[in-house]
Amino acid sequence: MTAPHRHAIGITRRETLQIGYTGLLGLGLSSAIGPRMASAAAEAPAKPSRKPKSVILVFLTGAPSHIDTFDPKPDAPAEIRGEFGTIPTTVSGLRVTDLLPKLATRADKYAIVRTLAHKDNNHTAATHHLITGSKQPGVRFDKPLSRDDWPCYSAGVSFLRPPAPEVPAGVTLPTFLAEGPLVWPGQHAGFLGPRHDPWQITRDPNAKDFTVDNLRIASGMDVDQLGDRRTLLDQVNRQQRWLAETAEGRRMSDQQTRAFSLLTSGAVARAFEMERESAATRDKYGRHTFGQSLLLARRLVQAGVPVVQANMGRVQNWDTHGNNFKRMKNELVPPVDQGVSALLDDLSQSGLLDETLVVMLGEFGRTPKVDAKNAGRDHWAPCFFGLFAGAGVRGGQVIGKSDKIGAYPTTTPYSPDDVGATVYHTLGIDPATEVRDRLNRPVQLNRGQVIQSLFTGAA
Asked: Residues 56-72: pLDDT tens digits?
């Protein structure tokens, strides 16, 4: 039996199925369970009490307005400043919009970068740039997920760090970013190959029946019985020479080994048992998809997962071309304000904030001028915000300044590449590390610069 045909461009049908696959043992658990765990992380420029080892990326997909959140312009004309007022925070001189009362009282825990910037107002290309730290090769408006993509952060960790079979290097939840047939790029390991893909959760952690069934041993089966099944599987594999002689077969066998390790270790499986949390804790995060996804992210970090990406909103949820103010006020900002505040509190109280970098951002910002016809704001990549906390980040500071209408940075701009360099540096990976693309050409993993001011204090 021969291995399946591999296309030079795009993804195969087999790889498409792997993206959201959650079956057991291939018989097998998907190659998405095969990433590696970061073992030791480099110290940030300002040393936390523990070495950083995890990242939670809170991705506001569709891109929120920076002016209506963390970079308000109260002195600008009404068509710029919008409908929201501002409130003080616990940091002198720092004000945010009145949609963020909970995060306002925790401003000492995070830093705001107000001068993120790039040049692409296209959702798909900009998303790839933010969640991989590199520009999308061959950018097109409708370019889908491809094995020519740059690897996402967890894939970089999986590739460059020693494996820990019982823990995936990355988990993305609670949704996969896709519009009809167009699956957004940058969401997997790209040219590093499917064995380094993050594990994708596509169920709502707020649902009463939330489970991830492939992490649970089947009803009526104990670990010893599972071991017997593994023996049987080994016998089947030995009878199929292609499993031992082809790259595809070797990869499947490796997946099966890691799947058994994960099932029998239990640490990650228990992380998905949301009922283990008290009702008070779940209420604190909010009984909604946003809040429970962030609670699950915290539980996964506690279980040792190095990179968790929590997509706060399905595709273009924050894409407020119309009804920007109503949607921000009634649907979008309050659950994030509640959930992220609870996340910061939990991580801080447990000491995990020292070793976990929390990053919250979208793929770009929104236009300074409101579209009066639709009460919306359009795409705006030249200036937007990012929130950073933990892992040595000095809270209570604002890095960078935008102009009086929030259109362009007036101080040093930082690119998505710089965000990527900061993520990798936090995880103890040199961003300049050389890897090989699908044509075996040497390429640099990331070409950004670490945002040093996050750790040393704003200049």
From this structure: 999 999 999 999 999 99
Contact 306, 187 (CB under 8 A): no
* Of residues 420, 454, 455, 456, the one with CA closest to residue 155: 420
* Spatial contact of 37 and 304, defined as CB atoms under 8 Å apart: yes
Q: Model confidence over 361-391: pLDDT tens digits?
A: 999 999 999 999 999 999 999 999 999 999 9
Residue 109: partners with Cβ closer than 8 Å, 6 or more residues away: 344, 348, 353, 389, 395, 396
Domain definitions of the chain by residue range: 14-24+35-213+279-456
Residue appearing with tokens 């506690």: 302
Mean pLDDT over 322-326 rounds to: 97
Helix (H), strand (E) counts: the chain: 15, 16
Answer yes or no: are the C-beta atoms of 133 and 448 closer than 8 Å: yes
Helix 153-160 and helix 416-426: axis angle, to 10°?
40
Nearby residues of 355 by Cβ (< 8 Å), 6 or more positions away: 41, 48, 50, 51, 52, 53, 54, 390, 391
- Residue 4: which pLDDT band, with cuts at 50, 70 and 90? very low
Structure tokens at 167: 């823990």
| CA proximity to 431, closest of 454, 448, 443, 455 | 448
Alpha carbons 11 and 9: distance in angstroms, whole number? 7
Q: Are strands 178-179 and 54-59 parallel, antiparallel or unpaired?
A: unpaired
Query: Could you tell me which residues are beta bridge partners of residue 414?
Result: 116
pTM over 0.90: no
CATH of the structural domain 14-24+35-213+279-456, one choice from 3.40.720.10, 3.40.50.1820, 3.30.70.100, 3.30.450.40 = 3.40.720.10
- Lookup: tokens for 43: 């110290």
- 115 membership: H or E segment, kind and range: strand 110-116
The DSSP call for residue 197 is P
C-alpha dihedral, 94 to 99 to 105 to 108, nearest 10°? -50
The pLDDT of residue 38 is 33
> Tokens 């001068």, residue?
115
In whole angstroms, give the CA distance from residue 427 to residue 430: 9
Q: What is the DSSP string of 42-76?
A: PPPSS--SS---EEEEEE-TT---STTTTS--TTS
